[in-house]
Structure formats: C-alpha cells, structure tokens
Design a protein that fits this description.
Layout: H1 2-17, H2 22-48, H3 51-56, H4 70-84, E1 96-97, E2 119-125, E3 131-132, E4 141-142, E5 145-146, E6 162-166, H5 174-178, H6 182-188, E7 205-207, E8 214-216, H7 228-240, H8 257-263, H9 281-290, H10 302-313, E9 324-325, E10 338-339, E11 347-348, E12 366-367, H11 389-394, H12 401-408, H13 412-422
Antiparallel strand pairs: 1-5, 2-3, 2-4, 2-6, 7-8, 9-10, 11-12
Helix pairs in contact: 1-2, 2-4, 4-9, 7-9, 10-13
C-alpha cells in the first residue's frame, strides 16, 4: 500500500510541476519513466519473493541475478530501461553512429545478448609489416550511419588496407566476470609458453579510466577494457556517438575542428547527470550489466557428460577454462562465487585474429570468448564468419592447433557427444 501511495504522489508531482519547452522535456519524460520503472520493480520484488514465484520461476536469459536487494533490483530495471532507450540527435546521437540503442546490438536471445550484425574496424599495415591506426587519436572503429542533416559520415580512406568486422559480445553474467580478481586471470597466463604446451595466453594490462590504475583487461574482443563502467561508456561514445565523462571527445575520423563543430551540435559531454536520479546513462548501463544473471545451463544428459570429458581430454579446457572464482566482496552476490564461463579471459593467437592492434592486444590476438550461453549464439567467432560450432572449431589453429587436431581425430560418435556438450552451454 505504501508503495502505491508513493507512486501516486510522484505521478501527481510530475503532472503538476513539469516545465515547459524543449529544455525540460527529456529530464521530465525520463523522470516519469524512472518512477514507472521503480513502481514496476516494487511490484515485481513483492511477487518474486512470494512462495508461488519460488515454485514457478525458472532461470532464463535476461533475468537479473537472484538475490538482489530492492535497491539493486530497481537499479537493474532503470539500467534496462536506458539500455532499451532509442536515442536521437537532440539527445546527442551521432554525428556518426552504428546503432541508436544498446539493445540494438544486444537483444538475442534476450536483452543483453547479441545481434545478427557486425561493426567495422580499419587500419594500415605498412610495407615493413607494422600496423598503425589511420588516426592515432581515434583508433580503428568506423560508424556506418550519420545524422542526415549533419553531413558527417565516417568514410574508410583509400589507404586503409586492414579492414575487419566484429560481432557484439553477450553481456550475461558480466558482473560476475568483473568480480574475478586480476590475480586469478594473471595466474593462468603463460606468455612465453614455459610449460611447452604450445599455448601462450597473455593478460593485457589496461588503464582504469576512473582510477588511473593499471588493471587486467577483460571486456571486448581485445580485452581492451577492465570495467563495466568503461565498457558502457566506450560503447555509448563509439557506437552511438554520445560523449561522456570517460570518453568526452567525438569519434569522427579526419575532420577538422570547424567541420566537427558543424556536425556536433550538442555540447560535450552529452551524457550528464539526470536531476531525477542523480545518475548518468553510463551509470545505469553499468548497473544493468552488473546485475544481469549468467546464461542458464541446458539439460545435462549422459551425452553431455561424455562430451565434457572429451572437451577436457583434447585440450579445449586449457583456454576455455570451465570456471573461475570471484574474490571476497561485501556484496554476497559477488562473494567467492563460482563463474562457469568457459574462458581464461586471456589473449591468444589461434589464427583468427582481426589484424587490428588495440589497447596492448596484437593484431593476431583475440580474447578467449566465454562459451556459456553458446547454444543461443550464431554465427560464431569474433567476426561472425563461422556458421556453426563445427566450423568454428575447424577454424582454430596456432595455439589451438593441437585441440583442433584432437577434434578431427574423434570418431563421429564421440565428435557428436562433444558438440552436444557445447550445445548444452
């Protein structure tokens, strides 16, 4: 009853005190959406805590982590709301962009997943074999859309001779991945292959833009980012053109300052604190990703169990480490939790690299993708070039050559068991 009274009072306040004109429109519309979302959250919290819900509810893709507090659940819902929001030029979209919402790239099989699309990266490979970015200040990403009235389209220049594609990465369980300590990831690294197993995974060190400290990178195909706040802020600027405190400059290639001024009509940074919540969009993205549950595991049958044994025996588990563990945390959601992601979160050269150097990752290196949720991911590999699991495995080489050969040498029956196991993840 108190929740209903509070919700009603907030709606009344919005109706009678909203400002007029364009400058007041976005904050107040968002305020109303915030109130509606929080009220929905209150109702869901009461339902999810009931015995009926405990008996009926099954985990699914896109759910929040079980055990969220009321405040955390509200933050998850608010973050999801911002994740779904379609941006426009008046709100800072562009001038060049790849999508108009976070969910546009992360929606299969639920919000937070993947999408049947790729983004474009480009660079230059010089005659001596060295790689360089086209514009050192802007990296390698190009956007495919632009605001029509701004005439600021990103165009790949003729001297770019390295062009690659990258598919979206699913975000399920991202908060648990963030909670894995740097030391755990570093303990798996063997950059000089001292154990002579042919595998030389590296744990790249990147700068945490919020603290300025060096951290182990773990997010992105190149492990180029260490935290979810950075991951969301990077995508907001790079994929939607919305600048923020962490990435305050527009990402538009080879434009003179006066050209950029004609294209970018909104003062930077464009993502600012919302008066109604005291939070930025990137804070809400962080909450949604942090509290997003890991993908549910499929049914474990005898064939699945047999396939898991083969997964270990032919060497897949050397890079696709079945589980890692979080460290001590004041939040029980992340306190010594087992994270069955099937990845070592290291950079490897398996012969499928995208040719781009980024944040300490060499052109031939790609981060080991987590396999949890694999059964709902197609196509595969960093560029979406493998139509199915078998094709993806057969593309493995270099550090993964021994594992690929092991797969090839399996009988058809045993190979089928391994594929059944992978399709249970």
């Amino acid at each position: 009853m108190l929740a209903l009274v509070w919700c009603g009072s907030q709606f009344y306040a919005w109706r009678h005190h909203r400002p007029c004109g364009p400058s007041g429109r976005r904050p107040m519309i968002r305020f109303f959406r915030v109130v509606a979302t929080v009220c929905l959250g209150m109702g869901l919290i009461m339902f999810l805590g009931s015995p009926q819900a405990e008996a009926q509810r099954q985990p699914s893709f896109g759910d929040p982590l079980p055990g969220l507090s009321a405040t955390e659940f509200e933050e998850f819902l608010l973050g999801r709301d911002d994740f779904l929001e379609v941006e426009n030029a008046e709100e800072g979209l562009g001038p060049a962009y790849n999508n108009t919402s976070c969910a546009g790239c992360h929606n299969v099989p639920a919000i937070g997943g993947i999408a049947p699309m790729t983004t474009t990266r480009a660079g230059i490979l010089d005659s001596d074999g060295s790689y360089r970015d086209i514009d050192p200040k802007r990296g390698s990403l190009f956007q495919i859309f632009s605001i029509p009235t701004h005439n600021c389209q990103s165009v790949i220049p003729a001297d770019a001779n390295v062009i690659s594609r990258r598919a979206p990465i699913p975000l399920f369980g991202a908060g648990l991945v963030e909670a894995i300590p740097d030391e755990t990831i570093q303990s798996l690294a063997d950059p000089y292959d001292l154990d002579r197993d042919g595998i030389s995974g590296r744990a790249p060190m990147v700068v945490d833009l919020l603290t300025g400290n060096a951290r182990v990178g773990r997010f992105g195909w190149k492990s180029q980012l260490a935290t979810l706040l950075e991951f969301g802020a990077d995508a907001y600027r790079n994929e939607m053109g919305i600048t923020n405190d962490l990435f305050p400059a527009e990402l538009t290639f080879r434009l003179m300052p006066e050209q950029l001024q004609r294209c970018d009509l909104i003062p930077d940074p464009e993502d600012v604190l919302e008066p109604a919540t005291g939070r930025r969009g990137i804070d809400n993205f962080e909450s949604f990703m942090k509290f997003l549950a890991p993908p549910p595991r499929g049914k474990i049958t005898e064939a699945v169990s047999n396939g898991r044994v083969l997964f270990d025996s032919i060497g897949c588990a050397k890079c696709h480490v079945p589980s890692l563990t979080t460290s001590a945390s004041s939040n029980p959601l992340f306190d010594y939790q087992r994270v069955p992601l099937f990845s070592d979160l290291l950079l490897h050269d398996i012969g499928t690299g995208d040719g781009i150097r980024q944040a300490g990752a060499e052109p031939e290196e790609i981060r080991t993708p987590a396999l949890w949720g694999l059964r709902h991911r197609r196509p595969l590999l960093h560029n979406g070039s493998a139509a199915n699991t078998t094709e993806a495995i057969m593309r493995h080489g270099q550090e993964a050559e021994i594992a690929r050969q092991g797969f090839e040498q399996l009988s058809s029956e045993r190979r089928s068991s391994l594929l059944i196991f992978l399709d249970s993840l």
